[in-house]
Amino acid sequence: MGKQRLGFLSDFVEAITRRKRGGEAETLQALARPASERARVACTVLMGRIGDAARVAVAEQALSAYAELDAEQRLAFFRSMRDDHGVDPQAIREAYAAWDKAPDAAAVADLFRVVEPARQTLLRRLNLAPGATLQLVRMRQDLLAAMRADPGLAPIDQDFAHLLASWFNRGFLTMRRIDWNAPAAILEKLIEYESVHRMEGWGDLKRRLAENDRRLYAFFHPATGDEPLIFVEVALTQGMPDAIGPILTAPEAKLPEPADTAVFYSINNSLAGLKGVSFGNFLIKQVVAVLKAELPELKTFVTLSPVPGFAAWLAAQTDAPATELRTALAGDWPSNPGAVE
Amino acid sequence: MGKQRLGFLSDFVEAITRRKRGGEAETLQALARPASERARVACTVLMGRIGDAARVAVAEQALSAYAELDAEQRLAFFRSMRDDHGVDPQAIREAYAAWDKAPDAAAVADLFRVVEPARQTLLRRLNLAPGATLQLVRMRQDLLAAMRADPGLAPIDQDFAHLLASWFNRGFLTMRRIDWNAPAAILEKLIEYESVHRMEGWGDLKRRLAENDRRLYAFFHPATGDEPLIFVEVALTQGMPDAIGPILTAPEAKLPEPADTAVFYSINNSLAGLKGVSFGNFLIKQVVAVLKAELPELKTFVTLSPVPGFAAWLAAQTDAPATELRTALAGDWPSNPGAVE
Amino acid sequence: MGKQRLGFLSDFVEAITRRKRGGEAETLQALARPASERARVACTVLMGRIGDAARVAVAEQALSAYAELDAEQRLAFFRSMRDDHGVDPQAIREAYAAWDKAPDAAAVADLFRVVEPARQTLLRRLNLAPGATLQLVRMRQDLLAAMRADPGLAPIDQDFAHLLASWFNRGFLTMRRIDWNAPAAILEKLIEYESVHRMEGWGDLKRRLAENDRRLYAFFHPATGDEPLIFVEVALTQGMPDAIGPILTAPEAKLPEPADTAVFYSINNSLAGLKGVSFGNFLIKQVVAVLKAELPELKTFVTLSPVPGFAAWLAAQTDAPATELRTALAGDWPSNPGAVE
Amino acid sequence: MGKQRLGFLSDFVEAITRRKRGGEAETLQALARPASERARVACTVLMGRIGDAARVAVAEQALSAYAELDAEQRLAFFRSMRDDHGVDPQAIREAYAAWDKAPDAAAVADLFRVVEPARQTLLRRLNLAPGATLQLVRMRQDLLAAMRADPGLAPIDQDFAHLLASWFNRGFLTMRRIDWNAPAAILEKLIEYESVHRMEGWGDLKRRLAENDRRLYAFFHPATGDEPLIFVEVALTQGMPDAIGPILTAPEAKLPEPADTAVFYSINNSLAGLKGVSFGNFLIKQVVAVLKAELPELKTFVTLSPVPGFAAWLAAQTDAPATELRTALAGDWPSNPGAVE
After folding, report:
1. What is the 3-state secondary structure (H, E, C) of D308-334?
2. C-contacting chains (≥3 CB pairs under 8 Å)
3. Are residues C289 and C264 in the same domain?
4. pLDDT at residue B336 above 50?
5. Residues D80 and D23 in one domain
6. Which H or E run includes D261?
7. Is the pLDDT of residue D340 over 70?
8. Does C200 fall in a domain?
9. Are residues B179 and B318 in the same domain?
10. Which C residues 83-112 touch D at CB under 8 Å?
């Protein structure tokens, strides 16, 4: 970067972290650059030597500039992310040589440090901004799209996948039952995200939340607030149903009859940007545990395998929750429900 | 591991994930092994090929077995963590050779994968258990103690430090004001953790939370619940006090007089296991922002530098929050409070 | 009441407050009486000498029996309420005579005690049951309907009105802003209760809750939970609109432009059983206060008087909130908005 | 009231409901009158023909003026409350005559209306102010003290008692378990209000809230917020203790052993101003129900009757909760615990 660029950088930091006395004009000029430039520069600044607190403001700037980019500009952004925030080859060579000579744990740690792409630090720093986690998940969704145009972006995705798997560790998730008392803003998302058995609207949704014979559970993450990451829909029935139709259309059971069967008839991931992060098994197992404790009369936990819609869809899926559901349901349940723990 | 050991392993998984039909005796035998063995074995199982949901139970078992260890046994546990869950040297050599030949981002990603010690995966899997995050923070506190006996454990600490910095990213923290309406269980911890200006008891604490002229803010993390990670104490005064004494002993200001000065007179980290994870600057900056918005009459934000207790303590500290406070206060504040953002 | 009746009574109390040892048959018999009889008897028991805690169970029984009555049976129930739980004429005569002789405050208090119909005590005791308050409000709604068939029931209504006005005192109400994060169970009621400008469905409702330029506030009572007692809808506009049409159909304002006008375009009472209890003025005044504090740019607070729909409806109404709104709006606002406090 | 007085009144309303243009001086003059005069006048204004919303401001004024009165002035205030806000004798005579002629329910209702002292309306209107309910409870506490000096104030107390019994109806109360996670502001009150077995401080309190073997439950009212109205303390033991000493001093049971006995060892009313309003029985019965559901191993529910402290105290008490506890415990429990419902 030439001298002029550096001058712009410092103006930029100045501009977005505090109001300059007497330099209003330059400040405005810095912030008036095109979004694609601001996004890239903010990332560079973020990796430089600025105070922790200034980083929050720079990260916000980077994300809001990114939000203005179109598909073409995002492609360029991701490429610069790959090329500008990678590794230092010379440092790798040296650390490898040291490890090769004395391959102990300390040498591994040194090697690990230089092999980790700077991008991972960049993503962690972008995450400093309020609300950043959800924006980063959406950024990864954009990346997955961009990879179709440029498969060479795949390495960045490994950084995203690595970080998101760590951040969305099951230990950080909370499970909530969603019923008709949930905020409309959450319910609206369920209607939008349900893709196994689509809902026709609010009436349909209300049916699927009916206290007497339906349940819906979702995982949430504290940093993504009211965004349901994955949700599973359960029907409580007497005996095993042999088709999905009645489950979707039957009126609510009048009395809370002691159902003996829990039918898992739909499971949906909400955020494409969390592809590969595995939630499904955890959710299903916890729902089984909760239902058993709450409704001791439940004896059988099944999915509706022979049914066209779901089973066909399930068989065709390759993403995580579907695979998990197949595994989970194939294994323990129908044959040996009592053993499910 | 010999065949017998493998048999024990499968009994163990069986034992802690489901009740075996007709094998009650073996199950009890597996769970009756000494805690040090159970802890190690559970970690091995956790890294093997078992279902996601079984992992939750195994992680719980590992952590509860770990909790029973004494200092000597913990030393052994950490050594096995270092030696059994490291890297595969052959895989490193191959990935390095591939990268050396074609040093692109994809080759870096492959190298990264094999250089990351298996311990990091182990820690992420231990974190699956309910309440695990706080237990892992305490495990690291034990590790820091163990490192005094065996400095060769340092590489494990780098894994802990790396993961905890990622998990306790500022984007995941929430700031809360603590006042007299906070749960006693939290307040009790403040009395325990305050080490800059000790509190004599509940009366002393209540004084420091007085609505009219005191504030206390803390960062919390969703996964560690009501554990205040770091907290800062502020006095609202008229004019700049020249000693800490009055701040600690003065009775509550009668009327909420429009204070013009906010004195940051104490900042404390609570969890030794989060050493090196930097919170202080973020907390101070956010408190400044909140106070400015709530009390526009505040013009000056200072610490009590020339005062024996705090300044001496601050100067002597080498850990993160103290350094941050020194930096934060040295920089913007006393000389130019209006510019703090 | 003959001896047989008394026997039934004690069985009844026995039946609904504890399980009788060895008298299962009689207990079931008592509970098997027709609902109309159970409702009346439970009221009698409630006024007798039983323990406080037993009263909770008897009150529940009375209300659940009442809930089974049809219109005809309710008429009979109200008549017995009027005739069986009135006053003791002889006691009135004596207290009056005493007061007439020495008309001091103590004599008034004695007279008051005997003039208050026993019904008021009955209603207070019915209120002991969980969730009773809302059921009593609905009972009064039934009463208002029954009075059309039998105007002689009016005196009971005075007891209801007296008690409900006391219980739903403004000091016990809390105002909440309702937005898209409110529970669907509440929002659904708004769609149902809105009668000034009907909503077509959830899309329509969401428009009326839009953050940028709409507000909806409601009063709630702790004992009736999520039941909005009254709600008012406000549009934030630039300049005074001259028709209701655009307010109902305009898309959400893109940016939160600094609106200068708050248009109160609809106000609705939800519970017919609270007829005569006045909420409207309190709600409107508090909304004005909240909006002024939150949005200082608001200068004008108006209703849409010359508009067909609302003004015509308002003029035609005789119930409390409409009258209040007329008064409130007629007085302070359009001519002299700055003076509204 | 002469003309001058009326002028003052209207200034007063003006002063406290809105800022007068160009009459600042008169306004300040009105508000500068002595508190005793302001309190009385505000009550008069409150009973006059002003808008609903203005009443909120006038009620606030009345209560804040009242709060400034000393004991002597309060005596005068209560006398004027008795004498200025009573009944209209002529109206009583007429309504009585009408009823005497045709003693139907409608005539009773008319008579009731004129016999109810205006004070009750006054108290209901004072309750319009935010936070008024607790202030009225404290006002009644003052009244009980004043009645010792002037027994002629007793009739007012009947109005207070009548209204408070209606407002603090059990249907409006919520029971909460208080543990160590409760706000310090609530816990502090328990230490203050406990008078059966005094607590020495926070350590003592913490012991009484210990999860393993102690319970504390309280009733709260929505309008008095975090004020515990009454609370009961329970020890969970194995076998029936024969003295209070061990209960107060024993360390926490190590493991949550399945206790078989619940010992109710203390019950306290918090607010003297709620004298005569009966809570104790309701609280005890509900605690018994909650404990039975939560801890099915509990078989015996007792108090410590033969113990000096509590039993002696209980026997000596004449107020409501003590009497209730005596009754409740005498009746169902020790002899036949299984029957308690």
Report:
1. HHHHHHHHHCCCHHHHHHHHHHHHCCC
2. A, D
3. yes
4. no
5. yes
6. strand D261-269
7. no
8. yes
9. yes
10. 83, 86-87, 89, 92-93, 96, 99-100, 103-106, 108-109, 111-112
Residue C3 clears pLDDT 80, i.e. is over it: no
Residue where a domain stops, chosen among B129, B150, B166? B166
Is A219 strand, coil or helix?
Answer: strand
Contact A187 C184 (CB under 8 A): yes
pLDDT band, very low/low/confident/very high, at C19 (cuts 50, 70, 90): very low
What confidence tens digit (pLDDT) does each residue in D79-138 have? 999 999 999 999 999 999 999 999 999 999 999 999 999 999 999 999 999 999 999 999
Q: What is the CATH number of the domain that holds C140?
A: 1.20.140.90
Cβ neighbours around B195 below 10 Å, total: 11
In this prediction, residue D338 has a pLDDT band, given cuts at 50, 70 and 90, of very low
Give domain status of residue D100, yes or no: no
Tokens 């989970």 locate to A328
Quote the percentage of chain D above a pLDDT of 90. 66
Q: Is B217 a domain residue?
A: yes
pLDDT digits (tens, 9 = 90+) for A182-191: 999 999 999 9
User: Rounded to whole angstroms, how far apart are CA atoms B264 and B208?
Assistant: 12
Q: What is the Cα–Cα distance from A226 to A246, expressed in whole angstroms?
A: 31
CB within 8 Å: A181 and C181: no
Strand partners of residue C125: none
Per residue in B98-127, pLDDT tens?
A: 999 999 999 999 999 999 999 999 999 999
What single-letter DSSP state applies at residue C258? -
- CATH number where B256 lies: 3.40.630.180
Q: Which positions in chain D touch C127 (Cβ < 8 Å)?
A: 169-172
Task: Specify the number of domains making up chain B.
Answer: 2
Please name the member of D96, D155, D285 whose beta carbon is closest to the beta carbon of C106.
Answer: D155
DSSP A149-211: H-GGGHHHHHHHHHHHHHHT-GGG-EEEE--TTSBHHHHHHHHHH--SS---SHHHHHHHT-T
Has residue B286 got a pLDDT over 70? yes
In total, the C-beta contacts within 8 angstroms joining chain B to chain D are 33
Same domain, B177 and B153: no
Rounded to whole angstroms, how far apart are CA atoms A129 and A127?
A: 5
> Do C181 and A206 make contact, defined as CB atoms within 8 angstroms?
no
Residue A280 placed within a domain: yes
The answer to whether residues B114 and B95 touch, using CB atoms and an 8 Å cutoff, is yes
pLDDT score recorded for residue B49: 84
pLDDT digit string (tens) for B132-188? 999 999 999 999 999 999 999 999 999 999 999 999 999 999 999 999 999 999 999
Q: Is the pLDDT of residue C335 over 50?
A: no
Residues of chain D in contact with residue B185, where contact means CB-CB under 8 angstroms, are 180-181
Nearest residue in C to A186, CA atom: C181
For the segment B255-274, the average pLDDT, to the nearest whole number, is 88
Q: Does B203 touch chain D (CB under 8 A)?
A: no
**Mutation site for C-interface testing, chosen from A180, A190, A207, A227 by largest number of C Cβ within 10 Å:** A180
Question: What is the Cα–Cα distance from D135 to D235, expressed in whole angstroms?
Answer: 34
Q: Assess whether pLDDT exceeds 60 at residue A324.
A: no
pLDDT at residue number B22: 47
Interface contact flag, C130 D158, Cβ < 8 Å: no
pLDDT band at residue B314 using 50, 70 and 90 as cut-offs: low
Structural domain boundaries, residue C284: 171-335
CB pairs under 8 A between C and D: 168
Query: Residue holding tokens 């939150």?
Result: C294
Do residues D203 and D81 share a domain?
no
Q: Determine the distance in angstroms separating the CA of B183 from the nearest CA of chain D, rounded to an integer.
A: 4
Domain final residue, candidates B133, B166, B199: B166
Instruction: Kindly identify which residue of chain A lies nearest to residue B83, measuring between CA atoms.
Output: A105
> Is any Cβ of chain A less than 8 angstroms from the Cβ of C203?
no
Per-residue pLDDT at A188: 96
Write down which chains contact chain A via at least 3 CB pairs under 8 A: B, C
Whether residues A149 and A177 fall in one domain: no
Same domain, C187 and C324: yes
For D112, the closest of C17, C56, C115 (CB atoms) is C115
Amino acid at D92: I
Q: Is residue C181 located within the same domain as residue C157?
A: no
Interface of A with C in 157-176 (CB under 8 A): none
